[in-house]
Predict the 3D structure of the following.
Amino acid sequence: MEVYISLVVLALVPCTAGFYNVTSNEAAPPKLWALLVAGSNGYYNYRHQADICHAYQIMHKHGIPDERIVVMMYDDIASSSENPTPGVVINRPKGEDVYQGTLKDYTGEDVTPENFLKILQGDSASMKGIGSGKVIKSGPNDHIFVNFADHGAPGLVAFPTGELYAKDLNQVINTMYKKKQFAKMVFYVEACESGSMFKDLLPKNINVFATTAANDHESSYACYWDDQRNTYLGDVYSVMWMEDSDLENLNKETLQKQYLIVKNETNTSQVTEFGDRTISKMMVGEFQGMKKTLANLYYPTVPLEPVESSEVPVATLKRKLSRANSAHEETKLKKQLDTLLKHRDYLKRDMEQIVRRSVYTDNQVKTVFDDKQDLRNHECHKDVTSYFSQNCYPLSKNAYALRYMYLFVNLCEYGVTDAVMKSAMDKVCDRPTMVGVH
């Protein structure tokens, strides 16, 4: 079905219309702040930066001023030699360019979890001389919207360098609440196992609401394959909420309505909500901007063709292979695919050896691989996962390795000590760290 939507330009509506009657004796309406983060690099991860560029366009068009939007992305997609339309990034087939005009506050090696947490907390002193230096300078009456699009695993989301752990994020959120750095805060997180970033960690009484692309045990999904660009243009959860924001009157749609729409349309994974559900009764525009936009939007129905996030590199090579124009190109692509699959086999064997050296019997090894325990021992998990990333397979450069991080969750929850697991890694990973497994 084809959808036509026309929106009329109106003056900027205060973000709390209907909630505040401002007088000299009352607080001013809240300022809106947005922190938008793409946590990957490499052309095969095109979709994450496309998602974030699109998110910026939504915030900007709906009236959040650029001085209150912070964008973190590696910025290697638009200018990539693999991009057939240099300087142009789209987020849906035949979509408009979402790259033009997008802020680039922090790019390249500045896109780190440490910088993210400093920016979120408004630590301008620590960010002086780095990127734009811009931070979230929110106050006790303000609203913050945070959007991640990246790879993930139980208890973490990846950055181009390093990982952001669930416990660290939630500690910062709680600290900000205690310091009255916001009135309300909303997170939208696109990543595999993204529900684990908040499950059993985010309280319901600190004015924070979060929705995630997946629960704590499943993958998120890429979508919108593009034959011209040879890549997936978006992620299912992300394009669903953003296309909804493009089409809806954000002054009249609640966060809960948007959540339910996205949950219904994202049938590839279980979209999940956490934290303070009363915030979900607020309007989307109170976090994404209340200004109505001039648009004659035409969104023809196009196939999502979703693929599990970790399988994107394989799916990409197979699609290229099916359209090879010569025997030479076919041979080259087959070699790339064969190398990729061999690297994945190496990784799997290494993980089997690490588990085998951490437990005692074949039955225990099988149990560790077959089970999926809930993550509760965050300290053990962070310790061993960080060690694995530093000494075996850097997770920021080996997204496929993330799908095995549940094994460390299981081992920690079974009571295997971090010392035992680290010893196992030392024996198995006694060589230069591996990169390029994808």
Observations:
- The domain at 324-428 is CATH 1.10.132.130 (Topoisomerase I; Chain A, domain 4).
- The chain is about 35% helix and 15% strand.
